[in-house]
Design brief:
Elements: H1 14-38, H2 47-50, E1 58-63, E2 66-67, E3 72-75, E4 78-82, H3 83-90, E5 94-97, E6 102-106, E7 111-115, H4 116-121, E8 125-128, E9 131-135, H5 136-141, E10 146-150, E11 156-160, E12 164-170, E13 176-177, E14 186-188, E15 195-200, E16 210-214, E17 220-224, E18 228-236, E19 255-260, H6 265-269, H7 271-274, E20 283-291, E21 298-300, H8 304-312, E22 316-322, H9 331-338, H10 341-358, E23 362-366, H11 375-392, E24 395-401, H12 403-406, H13 411-417, E25 420-424, H14 442-452, E26 461-466, E27 468-474, E28 481-486, H15 487-496, E29 502-504, E30 509-516, E31 519-525, H16 528-540, E32 545-549, H17 557-566
Parallel strand pairs: 1-11, 19-20, 19-32, 20-22, 22-23, 23-24, 24-25, 25-26, 26-32
Antiparallel strand pairs: 1-2, 1-3, 3-4, 4-9, 5-6, 6-7, 8-9, 10-11, 12-15, 12-18, 13-14, 15-16, 16-17, 20-21, 27-28, 27-31, 29-30, 30-31
Helix pairs in contact: 10-11, 14-16, 16-17
């Protein structure tokens, strides 16, 4: 009998089993990861969700690649768009005054005020769930735009107000995704040969293979560059309504405007004397209009003889209107005056009619009591005033403090309708400051210029500089005290106190101090040297010119400094 060759079964090593199982799981994970990372998603974004549509009769709205957060409404074959988003993204000239239940439409040469009740009767205005809407067809009459209403899933209106843009053509199998990733959901699949508007080619260091685009059917998303064909093309279309584009009345030469503080007729009569020794100035701005009531009443010191004298000396006259030298002087009063149609109209009618009567050349608005609550009404005031100024051929300039202090004003919109924005680069430190310091240091001025130019074109930007400084009395046992001093008075104080003057690189100014019984006097000096530094910053930025506060506080050497810098002869 043969013996069977029996093999002894070897037991599986449990450690090996664990390792094999771990390797298998890891392999599956790697495969899944690779599939998730490298296989494009075919999932499509819900279009209604993309356009924020949740209810019947809603219609998506896309404007220059931006999708309205609040959809429009389709009612009785008429499209209605949400007024708040129309004003913010489409046409700031549509202003809804909820406190008066009316809206005002401002074009370059026309102002239309319509009550909500009246507009509702004409099917121009509807309200739903607390949201107010304006007729799309009515909007077309007053807006420089092209628009297309598309039927489909979902219904949407695609609007263009940008007529100067770049495009690329797409090839076969292109998809536009919500985010710059192949795993992101698909928004739309443009047909080959479709031209897409380029929104941005810089979408992040990790996404160099993608471009942000807006499609003709209203979607904004990302497309892989491999689907784009040909070179980028720049397109400039004819504007839909060129007559609705705000024009600007700008000087061909650089502006050199000096403010002339006048508070009585005697000051007006002394104009020729006040200008003795002054050179290089081409605009004078007398302070003639003052806000006298919260209802919009304005007083006037306007003098046609003053204007005649100024013109005979080769000067243009831009009359200043302010909200702090009259009978009222508070943010509350300014808000009350500007937040009503009647108040704004009263101010505008007064200052425009008086400016025209005297033969002056422009209006300068110096409303300094405008807080963030008042800002929308202030913008509307400037829009409405711009209509009257444009129709009368008057230059409109606006004084604003640096954006650090008044960033809420909306300079881009102000510059759209007004001719010049005057950035007042002073009062860095005021009488109420907790520490002593410069009124207008060089870094403060440079930042004011830089921040302003983010919103205002350089050719519309005037930089206002001070002819004054502050003499500080500092005592460690009390808050610092100060008083304003002109350049001449500063020179006299330095001589009288035999103060040691040193150049301060940090502020770009000469600095001096003197010790006394009441503490230490400190002063950051405004003089020809400090002004030269500031003027170099103004000219290097390509600004439209300079303004100075105020006539009579300067020393005679200042005028040559200003003239040389504006002529392009930078100070050493």
């Amino acid at each position: 009998m043969k013996k069977r060759n029996m093999r002894k079964r070897r037991k599986k090593d449990p450690v090996q089993l664990v390792l094999l199982l771990t390797a298998a799981v890891a392999l599956v994970g790697i495969i899944s990861f690779a599939a998730g990372r490298f296989i494009p998603s075919s999932s499509k974004k819900d279009s209604k969700e993309y356009f924020g549509i949740e209810r019947e009769n809603e219609i998506g709205v896309a404007c220059d690649g931006y999708v309205f957060q609040t959809p429009g409404i389709l009612m009785n074959d008429e499209v209605y768009l949400p007024i708040d988003e129309v004003s913010e993204h489409l046409n700031p000239g549509f202003f809804y005054a909820e406190n008066e239940n009316m809206f005002i439409i401002t074009t370059p040469v026309e102002k239309v005020a319509v009550s909500v009740g009246e507009s509702a009767e004409q099917n121009l205005f509807i309200s739903r769930d607390g949201v107010n809407y304006i007729s799309y067809n009515y909007l077309l009459q007053y807006t420089d735009m092209n628009g297309t209403v598309l039927s489909g899933d979902p219904d949407r209106v695609v609007i263009r107000t940008d007529f100067d843009y770049d495009v690329r053509t797409v090839g076969e199998k292109a998809v536009v995704r919500e985010k710059p990733s192949i795993r992101s959901q698909i928004l739309t699949k443009p047909e080959a040969g479709t031209r897409l508007c380029i929104r941005s080619t810089d979408v992040g260091a990790d996404t160099e293979a993608w471009t942000c685009v807006a499609t003709p059917d209203g979607f904004t998303g990302y497309i892989e560059n491999k689907f784009l064909e040909g070179d980028m093309a720049h397109v400039i279309e004819d504007r839909a309504r060129p007559e609705l584009v705000f024009s600007h009345l700008l000087r061909e030469d650089k502006v050199n405007m000096v403010f002339h503080q006048t508070d009585n007729q005697a000051s007006n009569d002394m104009l020729a004397v006040s200008l003795e020794g002054v050179s290089g100035v081409n605009v004078i701005a007398p302070t003639w209009f003052y806000l006298e009531s919260s209802g919009g009443d304005m007083s006037s010191l306007a003098s046609d003889q003053y204007v005649e004298t100024a013109h005979s000396m080769g000067l243009s006259v831009w009359i200043v209107a302010n909200d702090f030298d009259g009978a009222v002087n508070s943010s509350k009063d300014t808000l009350a005056a500007l937040s009503t149609y009647a108040g704004r109209t009263k101010i505008i009618d007064t200052i425009v009619s008086e400016t025209v009567r005297t033969g002056a050349d422009g209006i300068n608005i110096d409303f300094e009591k405008v807080n963030s609550e008042c800002a929308p009404y202030y913008q509307e005031f400037i829009r409405e005033l711009s209509v009257s100024c444009r129709n009368e051929g008057l230059v409109l300039s606006i004084d604003v403090y640096v954006p650090t202090f008044t960033g809420y004003l909306g300079r881009e919109e102000l510059a759209r309708v007004a001719d010049y924005i005057v950035c007042m680069c002073y009062d860095e430190h005021t009488s109420g400051s907790e520490t002593a310091g410069s009124v207008s240091s060089l870094p403060f001025v440079k930042k004011g210029i830089r921040d302003t130019l983010k919103e205002v074109p350089a050719e519309q930007t005037i930089i206002a500089l001070p002819f004054f400084t502050r003499l500080w009395k500092v005592n460690e046992n009390a808050a610092p005290e100060s008083r304003a001093m002109g350049m001449g008075e500063t020179a006299a104080w330095l001589a009288e106190n035999a103060a040691n003057v040193v150049w301060d690189e940090e502020t770009g100014q000469n600095y001096a101090e003197a010790k006394g019984a009441g503490g230490t006097s400190k002063i950051w000096i405004e003089d020809a040297q400090s002004l030269s530094e500031k003027m170099n910053a103004v000219t290097e930025a390509g600004c439209a010119g300079v303004a100075e506060w105020k006539l009579g506080l300067e020393t005679q050497d200042i005028w040559q400094v200003l003239s040389d810098c504006l002529a392009g002869n930078a100070a050493p």
